[in-house]
Amino acid sequence: MTRITIIDGHPDPDRTRYVHALADAYASGGEAAGHQVRRIEIAKLDFPILRTAAEWRDNAPVDAIHKAQTDIRWADHLVILYPLWLGDVPALLKGFLEQILRPGFAIDEGSTGMSAQLLTGRSARIIVTMGMPAPIYRLFFRAHSLKSLDRNLLRFVGIQPVRYSIIGSVEGDASSREKWLRTVARLGGAAR
């Protein structure tokens, strides 16, 4: 049994958004396979945007962020889902990650100046949706936002391996969206 925390990174709480359906599918697949699942929906959270390094380093997180940190620390496997906006993660998801990945929770800056990774022992899957075809994002744009999230944040705090699912042309064919829902449910069952 794996403990899974799903981070639904769509900033719009409208349940008709495809990212929410994908998060539901992953959760259903995980629960059907006997895994424990917790969910974080950033569209429903109330937290401030950090404006200074001192706020990030010295201020205690608000209750919603502290609860999310508890759910992330509990997990063996994290799933982060988001729609590609302006070639990157949505601003609300970025703000959430800045709040979450604070010193003392995600990293520990020792006296040597080197950072200890405090979230080791967890794997992750990133699921990103977009209007463009996935091969264009992979080949022409080199999956920039996804690789940045992987290398600059998740691996930096010790989360690995990190696997990806890139879902393109989401405004197109309904049968393709249904196929991806089934695929994501299977991924939830495998919890990897």
Give a description of the structure:
The protein starts with a strand and ends with a helix. It has a five-stranded parallel beta sheet, sandwiched between helices. It has a two-stranded antiparallel sheet with strand order 4-5. The longest helix is centred in the C-terminal third of the chain and has 17 residues, at 174-190. α1 links the parallel β1 and β2. The mean pLDDT is 94. It has a single domain (3-190), classed as 3-Layer(aba) Sandwich (Rossmann fold). By secondary structure, it is α/β, with parallel strands linked by helices. The protein has seven helices and seven strands, in the order βαβααβαβββααβα.
Summarize the structure.
With 192 residues, this protein is an alpha/beta fold.
CATH class: Alpha Beta
Low-confidence stretches at least 5 residues in length (pLDDT < 50)?
none
Report helical residue fraction.
Answer: 40-55%
Distance between the termini: 12 Å
CATH superfamily: Flavodoxin domain
CATH topology: Rossmann fold
Give me the secondary-structure topology.
Elements lengths: L2 E6 L9 H15 L3 E6 L11 H6 L4 H12 L2 E7 L7 H10 L6 E3 L5 E3 L5 E7 L4 H6 L4 H11 L7 E6 L6 H17 L2
Parallel strand pairs: 1-2, 1-3, 3-6, 6-7
Antiparallel strand pairs: 4-5
Helix pairs in contact: 1-7
